[in-house]
Amino acid sequence: MVQQVTDGIKVSVETAYEGCFQRGYQLHYSFSYTIRIHNQRKRSVKLFSRFWKIHDALNDTEIVIGEGVIGEQPLLNPGQSHTYSSGCVLLAPVGSMKGHYRMRDLPENEEMKVGIPTFQLHAGFAMN
């Protein structure tokens, strides 16, 4: 597990290799990740968007920008957490992801950029 705290928001990430499949003549490697966002602040915050940079060992980089996470824009009161799971597919058995969330401090209505720590995606057989 990797973790990062930005402005009192703790982001923890766990990953898993889910297997590979063939599409045409190309192998694809499937990974899942579970993210827990914990509000350690004294004020409520709301997550409204995400930014991902997904990199695989074949030097392909994909940028993903979107509203919320898995169709939700969670509100986190002080001490609350939000956990969700998602996944990605790479062309290589090794890669990484990193990014950030855009959140809003509700009482102050100030926007915050909360870092998501870089986490590794790797199929066990590919690591020596």
Separation of termini?
A: 20 Å
H/E element order: EEEEEEEEE
**What is the tally of helical segments?**
0
Total tally of structural domains: 1
What is the CATH homologous superfamily assignment?
Answer: ApaG domain
CATH architecture: Sandwich
Kindly identify the CATH topology: Immunoglobulin-like
Helix content: under 10%
**Shape descriptor:** elongated
Unreliable stretches, pLDDT < 50, 5 or more residues?
none
Rg value: 16 Å
Strand content bin: over 45%
**CATH class placement:** Mainly Beta
Structural class by SSE content: mainly beta
Q: How many strand elements?
A: 9
The main sheet comes to: 5 strands, antiparallel
InterPro entries: ApaG_domain, ApaG_sf
Organism: Aureitalea marina
Protein name: Co2+/Mg2+ efflux protein ApaG
GO biological process, one term: error-free translesion synthesis
Topology:
Layout: E1 2-6, E2 9-23, E3 26-39, E4 45-56, E5 61-67, E6 75-76, E7 81-90, E8 94-105, E9 110-122
Antiparallel strand pairs: 1-2, 2-3, 3-7, 4-5, 4-6, 4-8, 8-9
Can you describe this structure in just a few lines?
This protein has 128 residues and is mainly β.
Tell me about this structure.
The protein has one domain (2-126): ApaG domain (Immunoglobulin-like). Helices cover 0% and strands 70% of the residues. It is mostly beta strands and 128 residues long.
Core attributes:
mainly beta; 5-stranded antiparallel β-sheet; Co2+/Mg2+ efflux protein ApaG; 128 residues; 9 strands
